Amino acid sequence: MAFCNSCGERLESGARFCAKCGAAQPGGAATPVVTPAAPSPAPAAQPQSSSALKIILIIVAVFIGLGVLGAGTVAFIGWRIAHHTRITDKDGNVRVESPFGTIESSTNADDTARNLGVEVYPGATMRKGNSANITIAGMHTVSAEYETDDAADKVADFYRAKFPNANVTATDQGHTTIVSTDQKNFITVNIEPTDGKTVIHIANVSGKRMGGTSN
User: Fold this and answer.
1) Does the residue 22 lie in any domain?
2) Per-residue DSSP letters for 111-159?
3) For burial by CB atoms within 10 Å, which of 83, 148, 183, 200 has the most?
4) Is 185 within a domain?
5) Residue span of the structural domain in which 178 resides
6) In this structure, are residues 131 and 93 in contact, taking their beta carbons and an 8 Å threshold?
7) What is the pTM for the complete model shown?
8) Sign of the CA dihedral 171, 174, 175, 180?
């Protein structure tokens, strides 16, 4: 039993103050310390859409494939694009503004076909994320990829008829490459059987070429 040190009044067990005189009492129950809960960690930032990277890879593939730029020049351009760009993504349509020009990717098949300027194989559908509209260093490149259930040979015959004076390269595996400069544009059509379908990649390059010539 405890008593107040000041007035001698009997104290309740664990009391910190005397009920009679109000004097503080030693050895009273300590007020429990409440530790605030640690804040929840902020959610990790989601990785940026890979669409822009796909577009950059399309640029590299088109330029190297056409032989318009040397591999070293393309690598430098790719590095500059990757490090000095402003990227916007609206409803899946990506626009990249770089020191060399603009790059756009569209999910609208009609817009892509119109910008491409090359007839799309009848019934072929555009493959999502594989189109680009590029203006760099005075050159304008439009690139798109399509697929169809028709045989690769049938698709190749269609484009051979469209570009009768083009250079054509075919392999035993059914891969055909058609390169045309008939309309002062550098047009390539790559046709390849893939997983039971035929994939068609079309690229149309116009404008100033490396070496100072222009169309």
Assistant:
1) no
2) HHHHHH-SPPPTT-EEPTT--EEEEETTEEEEEEEEEESS-HHHHHHHH
3) 200
4) yes
5) 51-207
6) no
7) 0.55
8) positive
Pairwise CA distance, residues 143 & 133, whole Å: 7
Work out how many domains the chain is built from and give that number. Answer: 1
Q: Which residue has the higher pLDDT, 194 or 8?
A: 194
Q: Is residue 15 part of a domain?
A: no
Q: Could you give the count of Cα atoms lying within 13 Å of 187 in the half-sphere of its Cβ?
A: 20
Percent of the chain with pLDDT over 70: 46
Q: Tell me the helix, strand and coil percentages in the chain, rounded to 5.
A: 20, 30, 45
Condensed to tens digits (0 to 9), the pLDDT of residues 159-212 reads 999 999 999 999 988 899 999 987 678 899 999 999 999 999 998 888 765 444
DSSP state of 17: B
